[in-house]
User: Fold these one by one.
Assistant:
Number 1:
Amino acid sequence: MTELVLFLVVGGVAIVAAALMLLSENAVYSALWLIVNFACVALLYVMLDAPFLAMTQIAVYAGAIMVLFLFVIMLLGAERMVSQARQFRWLTPTVLLLAAAFLVLTSVAIIQGQIDLQGPSTRPPLLRVVHAATDAGPVDVYVNGELAAEGVRFGAATEFAAAPLGEATVALHAAGSPTPLLTSTFTLESDAAKTLNAYTVIAYGVGANATLALLPDDLETPERRTARVTVFNAFSRPIDLVDFGVENPTVQDERILIEGLAPGEAFTLPPVPENTDLRPYAFTEAGSLINVLFRLNNPELYRIVREQSQLMVVMEERIADGTATGSTRAFTALLDSRTAPRFGSPQGIGELLFTRYMLPLQMVAVLLLAAMIGVIVLTHKDDFTPRRRDVRRRVIKPLTRVLSAQIGHDVLQPEPTGGAPELPRETEQPEPVGD
Amino acid sequence: MSVQIEAYVILSAVLFILGAMGVLLRRNAILVFMSVELMLNAANLALVAFARQWNQMDGHIFVFFVMTVAAAEVAIGLALIVAIFRTKQSINLDELHQLEG
């Protein structure tokens, strides 16, 4: 409701300002009304989630372009123009009629055209697969029957890849094998409110109990200088995540961050500041602070990078211990993914400009350069280097005028070429040569 | 988003038409130029509105380019007006109907 009122007020002011710009007799007033109109449009940009463009609009249009306009108006003294009889008497009624017709036509087209209000996000959802299934060995990943990745090792993940909207069948084959080990069908939805819709499929479980789980990923940029850390439990038992404090891990300063995370569940930590070292964190068996399953000891591996979405998967790794089956232990993989910049942010615009629109950007730069040179050429009246003869004559003339004022009569004959014999030719006067 | 996209597009159409009327009706060359700027702005508003609607930032890039081209166009146009004013001592478009220097 507030937004509607704001839109009506700002839009109304924009239209009134544009109309007054048309009707003002004085060109300076017109320019000032146009600035009001530009400011209103900038406000509308803010309402449309384009803050960077709003600022650019103020700086470039209201700041630079309109100052240039006002400068030229004042320079030429063109505030008021003598109105004179038109050559075409029916111009005004014709223009009004055409404008009204155009307005009716566009309005009907816009309203009847039924712009799809749901705005289907044309960007397909992204999908990646994490291999956390114990005993499965390297796998090939097929999405909807097509090979997506080959030879994914245990603990590794595939890159995010575009997947079709709707049903997606993910199948994991043992590397090189035509028959699937695991297969499952998920529904990938597209949320129009989000810039990117990303999903992670995690294969987890031991041996024959392995299964696939779908985890919606949030790739929106988190708060400034923080990262989003999500923990997924691919272990066979419930786990806790405990922060044991920095230096001397004692039970006294422990903080339980996640409690009783069941297998196949995910939990997102509150925003973690950048460069946080996860060294004091450890995964323990649920309810037990003593039975530490895995300690995040490697600072290079478990370093939080800002503006990223990081997924930590706790999985069960098979190790050989001399017995026939071996035993299992916890293993943790931290998967980084770059977050998409917020809609309308300078970062997003910059990324698009320097990737997809690099060539147009270069062309626009060349255009600006050409315009700059063009302006210099257009406004420069004469050649760039005045001829030497002209320089001398202009220097001589004021000198003769000074002399004649002192003597009382002309010192120079009116012949144009000879110059004055009583003046030394070499006289250099610091007289500025120009118009 | 409580304001529908149609509202923005219709507002943009109204501003565009006002600009077009300015181009046709006013005889002052500088005012005609300002009206062209108004039309470019109206088109920009529609682009930003559709960018919001489709959740794609490409529209913002186009607006960025339009702004750049508008800046170049204004610089050249005003230089032309100054050059014409020097020779004709007028910027009334009705008097500038001969292509002579």
Number 2:
Amino acid sequence: MLNTADILETINMIREENLDIRTITMGISLYDCVSDDPARLCDRVYDKITRTAEHLVETGRDIEKQYGIPIVNKRVSITPVSLIGGCLDADGFLRLAHTLQRAADTLGINFIGGFSALVHKGMTRASSALIDAIPQALAETQCVCSSVNVATTKAGINMDAIRRMGSAIKQAAYLTRDNNSIGCAKLVVFANVPEDNPFMAGAFHGVGEPETVINVGVSGPGVVASAIRRAGDCDLSQLADVIKKTAFKITRVGQLVASEAAARLGVPFGIIDLSLAPTPAIGDSVARILEEMGLEVTGAHGTTACLAMLNDAVKKGGVMASSHVGGLSGAFIPVSEDEGMIAAVRSGDLSIEKLEAMTAVCSVGLDMIAVPGDTTEEVICGIIADEISIGVANTKTTAVRVIPAYGLGVGDEVSFGGLLGSAPIMPVRTASPARFIHRGGRVPAPIHSLKN
Amino acid sequence: MKAVITVTGRDNIGIIARVSTECSNYGANILDISQSVMREYFAMIMLADIDALTIPFSDFVDRLAALGRENGLEIHTMHEDIFNTMHRI
């Protein structure tokens, strides 16, 4: 028999502490859509996506009703389009982006991910054409998300690709200048990209994935923060236990929803992504967890240590609660999407350098960071190269989603609305890394012995 | 299958009667009730068997929520599995 305290705890988590399922993402393989005729390719892609995910949104709503827990997003990730559009030029990829938008509209999903390329070792003709098309595609569509993997620990770093991405980011910022350069919020540059990530903007359906799959991302920063608050002045071993237990409960709900969605849709269950994903809402912030752990403000010395411990405890608790864990799995620290991070940037306590250090111990990277619009392409490439190096050297995923907000400078703010939130423009160092970046070529893969 | 129905709000005459009538109207069999009143606030947790429900579960959730709104109460109906998975290994 259920006991009253357990029932009330669950209900309190959902109603007061913003526990929700952040996303159910259906991965769809598009290999069977390949054609040498761009029009036929687009038709097949549209048909396959709308047919396969036809019941995704309504199934999500039904499960939401059944368990009384909000499922915030229903999304689709697809095979990286550079792999199915081998014969397309930039115009062809642009046409494909519009097709994806049309499919997203038909399905009623809020994002579709996979306008992507994997170029960590080199670039195919199609990958190059895709990157050419990215800025315009992001400007002319609303739901299409793009990602490019420019490095892996095994292959090293493709600096030529980073140069192209620096330029694509600046162009996307310019083309969406009337809308706070929102195009850049839908574009991620990765190192060691996971192939089963359900979170946008970096989701795509990887090459080793089945025909279709259901991946689920859980959330719950508010639940963790409240549990830490209730634990009071305990020591760090006890605190780690509190976080683990909470992460276990959150993840169990994710597993329940994922299994149910997979069964109802007749699609295999893939993974649960254990990430703590914040939103701009009060009480749904990762920064506030760090402050609850004992920091005066996020960005203070000690922040990296808190985040490392939090990230580790979340994984330890979550792993036992789920049959398969994957994706990004860790604490997200996007600036614009986290109320506490926004406050810390506004007060001048959180700098881009501290954020970079934090990414060495948590899941993603420099995420949703707005920088001055006049930041040069080379400086953006430098930011990317630094972040990507952290991922490559530490055999982990890192990423950059940076917004050089056109026409704006330090002291201004950009606002995207919804889950993407708003961000104060952060100052960046303006000294030029141009000579390093323009050398081009590849940074060799790092050695993995002689560790220090 | 069982559902957990939670009812909270200002205490009033006939809350349990109204909720149980609605349950019986749609074929939900009440198995257990725990309720408390603190000052003027009322809180009740009901466990109901929903195997013989005459309407889809999601409609049942909506009907009870509507009943709550009409009477100034908050009524949430959730499948018991969410509690079982969260609190039992």
